[in-house]
Amino acid sequence: METGNHTGRGLWYNGGMRVQGISYRSLWTEPPGVVCGIDQTRLPHEFTCFRWQSVADAIAGITQMQVRGAPLIGVAGAFGLALRLAEDASDVALSEAHGALLATRPTAVNLRWALDRVRDRVATLPAARRATAAWQTAVQLADADVATNAAIGRHGLALLQALAVGRAGQPVRVLTHCNAGWLATVDWGTALAPIFMGHDAGLPLHVWVDETRPRMQGLLTAWELAAHGVPHTLIADNAGGHLMQQGEVDLVLVGADRVAANGDVCNKIGTYLKALAAHDNRVPFYAAVPASTFDFSLADGGAIEIEQRPGDELAAIRGRDTAGKPASVRLVDTVTPVANPAFDVTPARLVTGLITQRGVFTPEHLASARAVLQEAA
Amino acid sequence: METGNHTGRGLWYNGGMRVQGISYRSLWTEPPGVVCGIDQTRLPHEFTCFRWQSVADAIAGITQMQVRGAPLIGVAGAFGLALRLAEDASDVALSEAHGALLATRPTAVNLRWALDRVRDRVATLPAARRATAAWQTAVQLADADVATNAAIGRHGLALLQALAVGRAGQPVRVLTHCNAGWLATVDWGTALAPIFMGHDAGLPLHVWVDETRPRMQGLLTAWELAAHGVPHTLIADNAGGHLMQQGEVDLVLVGADRVAANGDVCNKIGTYLKALAAHDNRVPFYAAVPASTFDFSLADGGAIEIEQRPGDELAAIRGRDTAGKPASVRLVDTVTPVANPAFDVTPARLVTGLITQRGVFTPEHLASARAVLQEAA
What is the pLDDT of residue A335? Predict the structure, then answer.
């Protein structure tokens, strides 16, 4: 897995987000058949890009969270399967790579959805045509993700505009958890798409950014918001409840990794605590999700497998040393037992609504929206 | 403020807790009139002790959190006032030092309580006798804290024993937030006192330790529990709600910095979120507090001043570098806006009970317990 500073622009790249003056998507392709992206394990302390040239690179990269965020994991998985078929287009290789990629991150349903899309597209093709078709499908999934998120952004923007009414220019104050920005997708983001669009439309906004231990994805959110010029404040995950009690939050807006048929929302660990506080303080709680995040095969969130990640994600932390160089420190010795569940499930009763590319739905109306959402997915 | 490795035993030291084979209290005195203690800004990465020889040392040490925890802050403040009176025993010096020490940490009521105790004791004495009387009062407050916490431990132990009934040897699983152990007091701790006593009595226990961002006092709790041999697991603050949903928590047990007359509990930021999750999952939520933590002058917690601490407490973090040496890394650049409220208020409706040295009281019964609690304080 080659990693280096990114010097060239992607081939099919049309990213709306700028880094150091250059527009980027979070993932792009370069000839000949290389998958490139921003290495999110290094951000915000270093900006480097990865180059995946094999399915092994993709599996390692997804597992280590070089890419992360449910929508982006799905697209990255699709490219991983395409990389495998370029090596070996047999049925056995297809099936094994599908299974290996699916096992990298068990919680987000988008990964299975995207892998199934590629598999279903190529399964009936002769082996000689599979690699190209898989690659094309992955590219289409990536482009579709951008369009989906733009639509989520427009629906969410209407919500923000409604909250702004009567505020006399005072900012709408949004609390978000984890990173559901453009880095978590191919472009735009889910929860942050309405915020980027609202800011561009001149809507006064302020974002409370949960740092999101243990992986500190809040630093990615702060990095995105700073780059786009959106006012924001970083807070400890512990602080959000207090801010809601003080009337400092108008809306909680997060992404999700899987949404069950009843509207239970599985998202980054700690989301449930914020949803409880929102409910207790009558703050609306929304999740912004593409249709591919719905898992209508699950009646509720109870059966979702919660990924248990390595304890070292808590025990050590990455930052910059006194000389400004990227460095890690250990917070606890290696004998301290650590548990690290990566997601939790917010019960539908705490969810005000789900912002999708097809509109905003309350959990109660998901059943009737199922057809339109499955069609969109 | 001299800091160095501790080599001698304290004068009036009778600590039950051992560090590297030596029994310690968190604070002790050494002749001539020096206040010594374990520097909690360095733990668990370094074990060093401070030596306060002036009120300026005490003010700086409390502000920087060399000592922390409401009960210990109170005793440390009392010694700070005694140090000042040894320099200047005038009414003006007494009044100014009382004010300056009180301003170091605005949220915990124990500090005002202890400072008032010393001031009231010496106010009517001639200047020549004030320093000695103040020192004696501070020593008495320290000794009383140890006895108080032992009593809290016994009352809490009865609660743990009740929870253990019918568990057939399976551990009672306690979740705690921040550090309310012996480091937060002179000895024993408040929330951890029942746990130490339960472990010593052969009760199977397991403690989920919230790491408690931003100051990571959970590392102090893990350090105390490891030293005492109590099974425990460190978790991100985000994880507790999920663990309660999964039925993995039997009791939430925390300390507190101030409890209002109605039972509203002000404690380390993030406590409110755990209380919400406990309530949502029918897990009992208790705060263990000495009587001096009650502030009956406040009808409820709404008027408690919430300390806003420096953003750098989030923006930088201390650990050990790859060579095992204590080191800090910055997590965010200096231009990222950071907010750092240090406490929150858990409404009484979420509080199952308050464990004091005089027994366990529900919020509803605090009014009738007021006399016995004020007498004990």
Answer: 87
The complex's ipTM works out to 0.93
3-class DSSP assignment, residue A200: helix
* Amino acid letter, B172: V
Query: Which chain B residue lies closest to A327 (C-alpha atoms)?
Result: B329
Q: Is the peptide bond before B231 cis (omega within 30 degrees of 0)?
A: no
Structural element, H or E, at residue B273 = helix B271-280
B211 touches chain A (CB under 8 A): yes
Flag if A219 and B332 touch (Cβ within 8 Å). Answer: yes
Q: With an 8 Å Cβ cutoff, is B233 touching chain A?
A: yes
CA distance B363 to B367: 8
B241 CB near a chain A CB, below 8 Å?
A: yes
Q: Per residue in A289-324, pLDDT tens?
A: 999 999 999 999 999 999 999 999 999 999 999 999
Please provide the DSSP assignment of A25-79 as one string: -SEEEETTTEEEEE-TTTTTT---EEEE-SHHHHHHHHHTTSS-SHHHHHHHHHH
Question: Which 314-373 residues of chain B touch chain A by CB within 8 A?
Answer: 314-322, 327-333, 335-341, 343-345
- What the block records as the tokens of A206 is 């302020």
Could you say which of B242, B273, B329 has the minimum Cβ distance to residue A277?
B273
Q: Count Cβ atoms below 10 Å from residue B165 Cβ, excluding itself.
A: 8
d(CA A204, CA A248): 15
pTM for this structure? Answer: 0.94
Q: Which residue of chain B has the CA closest to A326?
A: B329
Q: What confidence tens digit (pLDDT) does each residue in B277-324 have? A: 999 999 999 999 999 999 999 999 999 999 999 999 999 999 999 999
